Amino acid sequence: MKIEDNRNESDENEEIRLDSRFLRYQMQSAAKYILPHNRVGICLRHQIEQYGNVDIFKHRETQRAFYGGLMVCGSVWVCPVCASKISERRRQELKTAFKAHLDTGGHCTMVTLTFSHSARDKLDDLLIALGKSMQSFSRGKRHDIFRREIGLVGKIRAFEITYGANGWHPHIHLLLMHSIGIGDPWDWVDMEERLYGLWEGACAKNGFATSREHGLKLHDAAEASTYIGKWGDLMDKRWGTDSEMTKANIKKGRSGSMTPFDMLRAVIEDGDLEYEDKYREYAKATKGKQQLVWSPGLKAKYLIEEKTDEEVAAEKVEAADLLGQLHWQEWKHIIKNNLRYQLLKEIEKSGYESALIKIGIRKSPPKMMDS
Ligand SMILES: [Zn+2]
To answer: Is residue 368 one of the residues assigned to a domain?
Structure first.
């Protein structure tokens, strides 16, 4: 009996360790610790109303429990919990736009842009230079010719930041929606060459070098699914909740490239001071910057509502049932003992009432004599 119990417990631990929600809560706590004055510290901790109740809901479709009545920080850059929710929503928006564009005979091309950098460069400087180079790239006669040639309808720009042996590696993924196809392989090669020429000039103007090998890549995708897949991968990697989250991969990532959320894992697992500093630098450099930018009018064209990251992070769109409410003192106990994840997990496993008893915030009802 005892052995059986132990085995169950370790299975359960394994299950928890691999639960992406657990990882996100854990990483969010690490972000709170590293950034004591950042809003991430109040995210899903502070009640919206002081001394207000905390609602507990159950998602009808997934049967997952979640909290309501709590503040959220809405930061797609520093908060793994908000980033996950915001990215999911942005992915749906992209999917809607791609599909509508391709269904009307449109074409999509993705361009990845970066420049040379070294471990000595500060992220702040790199991001400013990348933004300026991007502006130079999209202006001027040569770009106008390119725009007309492909019948550019609109574009979506995403910033991605990783860290590796050569320091910070910020890059841009630019999604072009256009009405004229690029055509046969020769046109394709020619187009890439010309765009690289534009990019090289834009970087030089801002004091940066780039290389033909890494500076600019064109990615073709014949159908929307390939795109969504690519962008989905890109986003999953950012908050690191896919299979890459295993410890072995984090270790491997350190010699190759890591996402900022991988840094939080490194801090959690090894208490690595170097990554605390790096994460601070990253939070400061990305503050107020938009991760994903659609060109003007593009969202309206595909009837996609404009919503800020903060609005997306705060909204509750799922059909869900209210299971009950926790008194603010009960919530204080949950926060103090770091039980946010455990409570949700226990509710899903044994139901609302039993979970509160197991977690130790409510007492079990007195037993009937004849039961
Ligand atoms: Zn948050």
So the answer is: no
